[in-house]
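User: For my dataset I need records formatted as: sequence, then structure tokens, nothing else. Please produce one.
Assistant:
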Amino acid sequence: MGRRKDETRLRILDAAYEAFWRSGFSRTNLDSIARRAKVTKRTLYAHFRSKDDLLGDVLEHQAELTRRRMAEIDAQLPEDREGVVTSLFAQLAAWQDRQRRFTGSGFTRLAAELADMPGHPARAVAARHKLWVERWYAQRLRRVGVRQAERKARQIMLLIEGSMSLAVIHGDRDYFAAAAEAAKRLL
């Protein structure tokens, strides 16, 4: 792909992510994505076969961005168990604080919206991404000497997902602190 074509594709992916994240999959249409990306619908279809494929590619792109962010987070993590857990949940709370309207994980929200469509390409991307994150947590826990790191990472993943969901429902960032406290007890 040429540079200009790559830039157009990226602009469409960014516009689509914003639209899907804000409005959900079913309430977003390709016309609004094309307008937001400042392309024609024909150009959009030149890059993506369907709305379903576009959502799958959007999530793949976001997963890659998340992996980059996680590398930055990793560089800042303390080298002790309690510090790792405190830092992870503090960063979640800070993420909520930076959002104008916190809506949690786009991966989780979109997968839930598509729950009745198990073969949807975006569901597969979301599942792979969440598994990658869980394994990332396990690696960090192993690095600070946590036994049964995979099991503990799964439990922490539940606390993270739950705290994000409840922070959205109640608009209360204290769920992150409660989840961090529970995670520390696990370790």
